[in-house]
From TrEMBL:
Transmembrane segments: 287-311
Region (Disordered): 222-243, 315-347, 405-431
Domain spans labelled Ig-like: 18-88, 96-176, 187-280
Biased composition (Acidic residues): 422-431
Cellular component aspect of the GO annotation: external side of plasma membrane
Annotated source species: Lynx pardinus (Iberian lynx)
Ranges of biased composition (kind: Polar residues): 323-332
Protein name: Fc receptor-like protein 4
InterPro entries for this protein: Ig-like_dom (IPR007110), Ig-like_dom_sf (IPR036179), Ig-like_fold (IPR013783), Ig_Fc_receptor (IPR050488), Ig_sub (IPR003599), Ig_sub2 (IPR003598), Immunoglobulin_dom (IPR013151)
Gene Ontology molecular functions: transmembrane signaling receptor activity
Gene Ontology terms describing biological process: cell surface receptor signaling pathway; immune response
Keywords assigned by UniProt, alphabetized: Disulfide bond, Immunoglobulin domain, Membrane, Receptor, Signal, Transmembrane, Transmembrane helix
UniProt keyword Membrane, yes or no: yes
Length: 431
């Protein structure tokens, strides 16, 4: 028989928190020794002993909350039942919350992770340790007492879910809900191509460094260098930087021409403007270049005088007149030649074909053209393809590929300056 007259008492602790050891005691009011004890939780026997002993539940959790009572005997005839006690295991601290600042960081910027939770007033001295995790529970920091973690630079590949954990010495561990972090990228812009030596002035046989940079843009950037005339790709480099360079070990005459570079960080392609590279001389022959330049200057004066004489002779024969201007574009890049295409707004600058002389009256099919480049003092290496003037006393004027159709030649047949001048006095000389 089981008696429940209050003779048997179940003693429980007051205020049980997670991680505590829950101790239950079954006692008689008269302090008699029990010969057997059973502890029952929510109607289930969780412990039975032939001795009078306490029940200890280490590291209690909310799962141990419920209704408890005990039964005991002092002899073989009588079994006593205790009162029922409700035991509630309190939360030591709630699940932490992960706070990300800023919530949508920019690539390359810093991010602060904060793991927030709160201790109860009854346990203000409880020591908590914190840790932070990335995608797939990748550990970002060891357990420490600091509830914050700073990521000095975050990148696009770092986007994903982040969590944090809090733990007490009593063995209580809790994780936050995952927080998804989206990393914003900044497209590349204001791409610039520079050279070393500067301004594209290369010396034959010496190295030329092509430097491509972007004023803005984040993350890994792919830089490419191209020839503007052929669209040939010279090289490609991927850098977590806004600047990269490509070196041509030894330049030659074939390296002269227009160059441009592109930058792409996955948010859009951006191109630089075209930079013209000129190649002059050789490092070991500078004195020879100076002498050749002086000789060339003298010859240019003599040839120019000869050209003026021929012009006057032609003017007397042809009368007055002025042929119209013609414009041609610089060579276009063929389909598929430029791997990255051309930038919006990047256009070829038309080159103006100047008539060698403006007062001639050559008939149709007899037009004489020359590209005129004017080099003024202090602007060596910069050539103007339009607006050249013979009256500019301080400018050196270069005429190239002067040709005309001679009288008596078949239609469409063009004679050049290299033909024998004695064949016809109308033949023009190259200057």
């Amino acid at each position: 028989m089981i008696f429940s007259s209050g003779w048997l008492v179940l003693q429980t602790p007051h205020g049980v928190f997670e991680g505590d050891t829950l101790v239950l005691r079954c006692r008689t009011r008269s302090r008699e020794t029990l010969t057997s004890v059973k502890y029952i939780w929510n109607g289930k026997v969780i412990s039975a002993s032939n001795q009078s002993q306490d029940l200890s539940i280490p590291r209690a959790s909310s799962n141990n909350s419920g209704f408890y009572h005990c039964t005991g005997r002092v002899d073989k005839m009588h079994t006593w039942r205790s009162n029922t006690k409700s035991v509630q295991v309190q939360e030591l601290f709630p699940h932490p919350k992960l706070k990300v600042t800023p919530s949508q960081p920019t690539e390359g910027g810093s991010v602060n992770l904060s793991c927030e939770t709160q201790l109860p007033p009854e346990r203000p001295d409880t020591v908590l340790h914190f840790s932070f995790f990335g995608d797939r529970r990748v550990v970002l920091s060891d357990w420490s007492r600091s509830p914050e973690l700073q990521i000095t630079a975050i990148w696009r590949q770092d986007a994903g879910s982040y969590t944090c954990g809090a733990a007490a010495a009593q063995g209580v561990h809790k994780l936050s809900l995952p927080v998804h972090v989206y990393v914003q990228g900044v497209p590349v812009s204001r791409v610039l191509l520079e050279t070393q030596p500067p301004e594209g002035r290369a010396l034959a046989g010496e190295p030329l460094v092509l430097i491509c940079s972007a004023a803005e843009g984040t993350g890994d950037t792919t830089f490419s260098w191209h020839r503007e005339d052929t669209g040939e790709s010279l090289g490609r480099k991927r850098r977590r930087s806004q600047r990269a360079q490509l070196e041509i070990p030894a330049v030659g005459g074939s390296h002269a021409g227009g160059y441009f570079c592109t930058a792409d960080n996955g948010h859009g392609l951006a191109c630089s403007s075209v930079l013209n590279v000129t190649v002059t001389g050789t490092p070991g022959n500078r004195m020879g270049l100076i002498a050749a330049g002086a000789t060339g200057g003298l010859l240019s004066v003599l040839v120019l005088a000869a050209g003026l004489l021929i012009y006057r002779r032609h003017q007397r024969k042809s009368g007055d007149g002025s042929p119209g201007n013609t414009t041609r574009s610089s060579p276009a890049t063929g389909p598929g030649q430029a791997p990255h295409g051309r930038c919006q707004g990047q256009k070829d600058s038309p080159v103006e074909l100047q008539h060698l002389y403006g007062n001639g009256s050559l008939g149709e099919g007899h037009l004489v053209y020359s590209e005129i480049q004017t080099i003024r003092p202090g602007q060596e290496g910069e050539a103007s393809a339009s607006g050249a003037s013979l009256e500019d006393k301080h400018a050196a004027v270069i005429y190239s590929s002067v040709k005309t159709q001679l009288q008596g030649d078949s239609a469409g047949k063009v004679r050049s300056q290299h033909e024998d001048a004695t064949d016809n006095e109308e033949t023009w000389s190259q200057v």
